[in-house]
Amino acid sequence: MRIKNPGLTVILSAVILAAAGVFFRDFNYTIAGFFISGILLLNYHYILLNLKRAALAAEINRSLDKKFVRRGEVVEISASVTVPGDYPFDITAEDVIPAGTEMFTGSNTCEIKGSGSVRYNVTCLAHGSISPAGIRLNLGGFFFSAGILIPEGGRDDITVFPSLKFSDAKSRLFGGKEVDRILPIKGSGIRDFREYTYTDDMRSIDWKVSAKQGKLFIREYTGIEGEGDMFIVDLPDVEEYGRDIEPLKGVVGSVISSGDYRDKVLVRISGCNLVGIRRIRSGAVPVKNILNDIGPSVRDVHMYRYRTGNIRGDLTDRYSEVKSAFSGYERAYSFEEEIFAIFEKNNPGGIKIMTGGTGDLSHIGVIAKAASKRGIKTHCCIPKDVGFEENLRNLRQFKFDILEAL
Predict the structure, then answer these.
(1) Cα(289)–Cα(292) distance, rounded to whole angstroms?
(2) Which distant-in-sequence residues (6+ apart) come within 8 Å of 319 by Cβ?
(3) Keyword Transmembrane helix: yes or no (predicted)?
(4) Is there a contact between 185 and 174 (Cβ–Cβ < 8 Å)?
(5) CA distance linking residue 65 with residue 67, whole number of Å
(6) DSSP 240
(7) Looking at residue 309, what is its pLDDT?
(8) Residues 74/123, Cβ–Cβ less than 8 Å
(9) Residue 367 and residue 379: Cα distance in Å, rounded?
(10) Could you tell me the residue range of the domain that residue 291 belongs to?
(11) Most buried of 74, 237, 243, 284 (most Cβ within 10 A)?
(12) What sign does the CA torsion over 191, 193, 197, 203 have?
């Protein structure tokens, strides 16, 4: 039950008028004070009586668009409240936001004129079972207002599983009691947890977390800070920039031969096109054999920009422009997903990006941003060729930890 200072209003009215009666030596003021206080007290109890009557007669229907989600996802909650009968006061309903969620969009309040409904979206902040707290009916009169909560425990629960997205502040495992404290459950050196796949090492399975969640989860360990666990080579276009392959090979050979490249991952891209992924299993593999994989490739569409002429066939310029822009955006998004999937699968402690530094470099920015979100150190190298100073200036916008020309 929630009241806006009813007792204080009644007491102040009685005290003020009683004091006036004593001051003016006229007990009519005192009698008037008690009379007004009695009216206010009756009004207060009349509001409570109507509020309890409305709460007993209220019918609540609730629906959720999803009952099984992952942490960080949005759930749409809708509820309708029907209060039969006539009431001399205004009634409003407030759907209490469930614990472990936060309001995303919409409104959780409505006026009740026989019936009313609310519809809003919440973001699930902690995994586990989240239950609606209930509907609060608020009744407001001229002097007082009061509210009463109609609980709904155990109805329409939302089951929230841990998020499997890339590591950030909203995608880690949380304890059942840690709804308000944003603290991940991790051991020393563990970056995050994710679901087990058939290609993972069973020795990385965390059996305690797996037993709690009912699924197999593996531990993802942090890499050595600053160590280049992954090499990403941006290959030139086979048609336009094939002549730039030799300077790029020089950079790749210099980077690989400068350290221990055993058990490293070599990712070859050409613009937005993911050409191939190779794990260097042994340090006995000659560098020249690795360089044989470095060659011009078909460069995919540019990201965040469009160019006319990408669509084959006799189409109007406007249609070609719109279609090209849409295709570029669609491909850019899928390329970003591919990068996150590579990072999640291999979990590098650091990456070394090698590119010619020419042409559209939006895809390099996407890689740098994805690495920054996972806390991965980035090291970018370009050939020390003609015009490399301008290329360095263009690449500085992506805020690499290390940017150099070799």
Answers:
(1) 5
(2) 311
(3) yes
(4) yes
(5) 7
(6) T
(7) 37
(8) yes
(9) 11
(10) 230-405
(11) 237
(12) positive
pLDDT at 86: 78
Provide the token pair at 254. Answer: 């210099």
- Confidence (pLDDT) at 281: 64
- Other C-beta atoms within 10 Å of 404: how many? 13
Q: Total domain count for the chain?
A: 4
Quote the crossing angle between the two packed helices 362-373 and 317-346, to the nearest 10°: 30
| 79: three-class secondary structure by DSSP | strand
The side-by-side arrangement of strands in the sheet containing 101-107 is 59-64, 74-82, 115-124, 101-107
What single letter denotes the amino acid at residue 379? H
Stretches in the chain below the pLDDT threshold 70: 1-11, 13, 127, 141-143, 153-156, 163-193, 198-201, 203, 219-228, 239-244, 258-263, 281-289, 292, 296, 298-334, 358-359, 386
Q: How far apart are CA 232 and CA 264, in angstroms?
A: 11
- Helices assigned H by DSSP within 25-86: 27-57
How many Å apart are CA 290 and CA 303, to the nearest integer? 28
pLDDT of residue 289: 66
Q: Locate tokens 């989240």: which residue?
A: 130
Residues 26 and 113 in one domain: no
- Angstrom distance (rounded) from CA 77 to CA 105: 11
Other Cβ atoms closer than 10 A to 320: 19
Terminal-residue alpha carbon distance, the chain: 72
CB 43 within 8 A of CB 89: no
Alpha carbon distance 274, 100 (integer Å): 39
Q: What is the predicted pLDDT for the residue at 405? A: 83
112 & 211 share domain? no
The 3-class SS string of 89-109 reads CEEEEEECCCCCEEEEEEECE
Tokens of 104: 């995303």
Is the separation of the CB atoms in 272 and 261 below 8 Å? no
Whether residues 137 and 283 fall in one domain: no
Q: What's this model's pTM, rounded to 2 decimal places?
A: 0.41
What integer pLDDT is reported at residue 142 of this predicted model? 66
Question: The domain that contains 125 carries what CATH number?
Answer: 2.60.120.570
How far is C-alpha 396 from the geometric centre of its chain's CA atoms? 28
C-beta of residue 214 within 8 angstroms of C-beta of residue 369: no
H or E stretch including 395? Answer: helix 388-395
